């Protein structure tokens, strides 16, 4: 005789923020407090977790300031080196927001606990090797348990994912995009500064590039997106983009890799990912959304108004590229972050004023064909350009918490409309619903121009 299955008890918390005492974590708590118990918000119960009770209390006080911390936010002790503490978090929450990085060091046990227990997981990693390794190791398990595992829900890589989709959706048939380049411009009337952990994640990422290549070689080949027209031209190392007034150089961020993974999943699921128990209205919306997203080659560049700004970026790239190869070099880079990054990263992170003053613009310059039939002609060259822009506040500690929380709120309010489980990129999971939410929360999407290109 079969024993009747007892339904899973509803977890105590809607969201637990792990790593809430960290530099980014405390800003994520601040963002979450905006949504707790507001009438239309699905976030009703919140807990914060980490290694030190004292630090968590301080983070909560800081995040709630000038009010007193809400009495009903619980504090839970958990350590990524203690799997039982992570499993205990998973049984207590619907969604775990992981802010403990570098993810290559601390992330896997958290993903493993979520994938084995069926709890949903979002993080702010910008580390391609971590993301792809988690997909390789935990995707099947997460499908079975019903755990949605989505990395890169921060500035890496949501503005890029949503921005490239926004640009590609401006190409109305018969027009098709061929390549879209994103140009990131960071702006502030104070210094632009990031916290040490982001720099550490980048240094360790460059140091372990060969492991990422090895991982990719070991994995089955997936179909490539079918892109109309030729490969984009290589272009000079330092480009001048006249229309947006920026000089720019390639940025080896996670963005292009994440966008590509979204496009690959889209090839396998041309209408996006069906939800577990999706409403007919959502199915229709999802299909309509994905039918307007057209694949394009995609790359990201970092822009600066001045040539000296570009030389500084190249300088940091050379320091990290050369020194991260040896353990002594890595020690130097990590011991003196401010020196080797020309002041862009500090162990103490940016001041509140520096965070408040900063903002970003991400321009998407799309090249394509006014008629898709032109793309298959020999020696075809794009004859049309569409420029769009995503714009928002400071990237690491304002935009990142905004986008992470919006992803979490979609999970809480629309779980039935989302896939049962698996390890995915944010674009493919949240694509149809996220842009409007970001716009409602201070991140804008604008169509700047559509123009014909000279023959
Ligand atoms: N996607 C994006 O755009 C974006 C933006 C910002 C940050 N990030 C990433 O987010 C990560 C965190 O950055 P951050 O600047 O906030 O770093 P941070 O200030 O060093 O914070 C790290 C947090 O992790 C906690 N932690 C460390 N080891 C732990 C362990 N064994 N168990 C449990 N908790 C542990 C720390 O707790 P204690 O307080 O106890 O030390 C702290 O709360 C980095 O990987 C960074 O690259 C990404």
UniProtKB/TrEMBL annotation:
It comes from the Eukaryota. GO terms for cellular component: lipid droplet; mitochondrion; plasma membrane. Residues 15-150 form the Saccharopine dehydrogenase NADP binding domain. GO terms for biological process: glycolipid biosynthetic process. Belongs to the saccharopine dehydrogenase family. This is Probable mitochondrial saccharopine dehydrogenase-like oxidoreductase At5g39410. The lineage of its organism: Eukaryota, Viridiplantae, Streptophyta, Embryophyta, Tracheophyta. The gene is LOC111316722.
């Amino acid at each position: 005789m079969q024993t009747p299955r007892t339904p899973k008890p509803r977890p105590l918390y809607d969201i637990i923020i792990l790593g809430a005492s960290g530099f980014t974590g405390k800003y994520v708590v601040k963002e979450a407090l905006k949504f707790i118990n507001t009438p239309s918000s699905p976030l009703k119960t919140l807990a914060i977790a980490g290694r030190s009770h004292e630090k968590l209390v301080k983070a909560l006080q800081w995040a709630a300031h000038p009010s007193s911390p809400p009495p009903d936010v619980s504090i839970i002790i958990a350590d990524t080196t203690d799997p039982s503490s992570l499993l205990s978090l998973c049984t207590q929450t619907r969604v775990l927001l992981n802010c403990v990085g570098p993810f290559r060091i601390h992330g896997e046990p958290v993903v493993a606990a979520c994938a084995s227990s069926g709890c949903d997981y979002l993080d702010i990693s910008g580390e391609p090797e971590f993301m792809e390794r988690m997909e390789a190791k935990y995707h099947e398990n997460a499908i079975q348990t019903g755990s949605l595992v989505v990395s890169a829900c921060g500035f890496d890589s949501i503005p890029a994912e949503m921005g490239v989709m926004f640009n590609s959706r401006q190409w109305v048939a018969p027009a098709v995009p061929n390549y879209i380049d994103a140009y990131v411009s960071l702006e502030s009337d104070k210094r632009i500064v990031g916290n040490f952990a982001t720099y550490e994640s980048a240094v360790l990422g460059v140091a372990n590039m060969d492991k990422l290549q090895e991982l990719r070689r070991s994995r089955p080949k997936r179909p490539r997106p079918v892109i109309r027209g030729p490969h984009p031209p290589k272009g000079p190392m330092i480009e001048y983009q006249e229309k947006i007034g920026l000089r720019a150089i390639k940025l080896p961020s996670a963005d292009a890799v994440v966008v590509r993974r979204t496009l690959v999943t889209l090839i396998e699921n041309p209408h996006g990912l069906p939800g577990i128990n999706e409403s007919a209205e959502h199915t229709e919306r999802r299909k309509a959304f994905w039918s307007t997203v057209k694949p394009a080659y995609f790359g990201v560049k970092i822009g600066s108004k001045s040539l000296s700004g570009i030389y500084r970026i190249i300088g940091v790239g050379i320091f990290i590229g050369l020194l991260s190869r040896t353990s002594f070099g890595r020690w130097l880079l990590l011991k003196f972050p401010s020196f080797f990054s020309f002041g862009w990263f500090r162990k103490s992170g940016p001041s509140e004023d520096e965070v408040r003053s900063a903002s970003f613009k991400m321009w998407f310059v799309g090249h394509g064909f006014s008629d898709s039939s032109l793309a298959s002609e020999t020696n075809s060259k794009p004859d049309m350009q569409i420029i769009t822009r995503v714009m928002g506040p400071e990237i690491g500690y304002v935009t990142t918490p905004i986008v992470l929380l919006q992803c979490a709120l979609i999970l809480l309010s629309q779980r039935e409309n989302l896939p049962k489980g698996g390890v995915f990129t944010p674009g493919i999971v949240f694509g149809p619903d996220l842009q409007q939410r970001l716009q409602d929360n201070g991140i804008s999407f604008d169509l700047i121009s559509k123009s014909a290109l000279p023959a």
